């Protein structure tokens, strides 16, 4: 499919203006635009501009609050609880990770729970902020039903990403940001919009039959990683980010594209902590850890053993030097949204 190229700064300005048109203030529009552009630059297109119209549609339908009154409840020096007042998820997550970082810098550990939020894009994007402050982080968020619990016929868990990030003693951070499904739902949505097939073995249709048809996959069930283990991890994230925070859980998170009956009330949990809590030579130890693993004998065809985050960092650096390519579908979205 033919793609259009746009300069990053021009595209970012367009997105900011669109969000402002839909009622976000200057700062919230900038936060949201930065997150979407980052997703494009790291190659996570399912979390990038393909979702812009969805956010605007939800603002228009009054299930995202463009003028939220976000409340931060301080539980202790280390722990905070945020009521995002149905804000766009980018803004809630930005406040949460910054609060978690601030708490960790004061006490050694920061823990922030968020309720009444929405989809916030890539967890790894927020992990980077903590790592730049020399902190280790773990981030959890739940999502709309897409994966059936092991043994069930009906989808209930979201693709519920698990994110872990740590400084590495080098410029490339270690960031494991992975959904518990074989592929994330955003990729399936992009494939459906562009009439593309999805890989085999990642989804079933509504009749429980394997499918490579993206539209049938969205109507059916996504498959978790590692069978019952993946289902268990999804359940864990649902408890940590939904039950614990006061957010929706157990399949109650609304689909952002198809369900405008009310706000999503997604829950997030951000945990950050200092690297020197137990040892003073963390950087040396983590460098030794990575070097030891990279020196292992490699299987045929593998030039380098990569740690999570390396490929994404390379894509970001490479794409930052080029214009961003957008599909015809996204181009049409931008035209409609600009009015």
Q: What is the CA-CA span between the terminal residues?
A: 25 Å
- The name of the CATH architecture of the largest domain is 2-Layer Sandwich
Strand order within the widest sheet? 2-3-4-10-5-6-7
Instruction: Return the CATH class of the largest domain.
Output: Alpha Beta
Put simply, the count of helices is 11
CATH superfamily of the largest domain: Malate/L-lactate/L-sulpholactate dehydrogenase, NADPH binding domain
Unreliable stretches (pLDDT < 50, length at least 5) are none
Which structural class do you get from the secondary structure elements? alpha+beta
Rg is 20 Å
Total individual domains = 2
Q: Helices and strands, in N-to-C order?
A: EHHHEEHEHEEEHEHEHEHHEH
Largest sheet, if any? Answer: 7 strands, mixed
Task: Summarize the model shown.
The chain has 339 residues and is of the alpha+beta class. The chain contains eleven helices and eleven strands.
Describe the structure.
The chain has 339 residues and is of the alpha+beta class. The chain folds into 2 domains: 3-181 and 224-279 and 313-338, Malate/L-lactate/L-sulpholactate dehydrogenase, NADPH binding domain (Ribosomal Protein S8, Chain: A, domain 1, 2-Layer Sandwich), CATH 3.30.1370.60; 183-223, Hypothetical oxidoreductase yiak, domain 3 (Wheat Germ Agglutinin (Isolectin 2), domain 1), CATH 3.30.60. Helix content is 40%, strand content 17%. The protein has 11 helices and 11 strands. Strands 2-3-4-10-5-6-7 form a 7-stranded mixed β-sheet, with helices on both faces. Helix 4 (89-107) links the parallel strand 3 (79-83) and strand 4. The model has no long low-confidence stretch (mean pLDDT 95).
